[in-house]
Design a protein that fits this description.
- Two copies of one chain form a homodimer.
- With 112 residues, chain A is mainly α.
- Chain A contains four helices and three strands; from the N terminus they run H-E-H-H-E-E-H.
- Chain A is globular and about 50 Å long.
- The structure holds a DNA duplex (30 and 30 nucleotides).
Chain lengths: 112, 112
DNA sequence: CTTCGTATATCGGATTCCGATATACTCCGC
DNA sequence: GCGGAGTATATCGGAATCCGATATACGAAG
């Protein structure tokens, strides 16, 4: 189980805000990142399958009722895994602040 | 050019602390992450090649002199790319603080 | 009935990861 | 000089992952 990509971490994070179905995860991630992270159907549903197999997410009870929508939520292990990844990012940023603080300026100038 | 993995970002970060050769990058990353990120020869040298092809790093002048050591340093584009990745991590952490602050506790207490 | 947006699923090419393997040099003790 | 350990670089091959293209289905709007 390789460490999840940024896109997948964003998916996990979206789910940490409450249970939701695949397409809603996609929209949540795209909206929240301002379009920086875009999830095609391949990335989205394959990641969901993998995440479910690994026990990081699970289908919520009373999920696929009406129109085939499957609602997912984070498991305990999923929350733990997310915490680990988040800490890794925090570690990188901490090192960056030590080694090269000028790389972390908030004067984004251009974009969003 | 897919976004670099955490391991590669660590490599870039090591290089942002000054020019060095491959093996030194490996040691730097492993030491700084406390062994969390381990770079085998495959990961290390293939990432170096890719990074050089993409113009993110370059061989320093007077590099492969003595014992075949190749010394690398970050290019301008490399610094810019590193900044982008760092900002992405920062964005994820910012969202995490908003959505699920309890996932970012500094009580590193438990394991290593 | 046709079109559009939502929603899910699978396929296939390309990329990346990373351990195993190979080579070569240097320092050290003997 | 010889053998071993650590340093240093490079390539191969299997596996995992990414992600656009494609397909299906449903409901609302025209």
């Amino acid at each position: 189980m390789r460490p999840p990509s940024l896109a997948v971490v964003h998916m996990l994070l979206a789910l940490s805000g409450g249970q939701r179905h695949g397409y809603a995860i996609k929209q949540d991630v795209e909206r929240r990142t301002g379009g920086d992270i875009r999830l095609g159907p391949g990335t989205l549903y394959e990641a969901i399958q993998r995440l479910e197999e690994d026990g990081l997410i699970e289908e919520a009870p009373a999920s696929a009722d009406q129109s085939g929508r499957r609602v997912y939520r984070l498991t305990r292990a999923g929350r733990a895994a997310l915490r680990v990844e988040l800490r890794r990012y925090d570690t990188v940023l901490a090192h960056a602040r030590t080694i090269a603080p000028e790389l972390i300026d908030r004067t984004s100038g251009g974009g969003a």
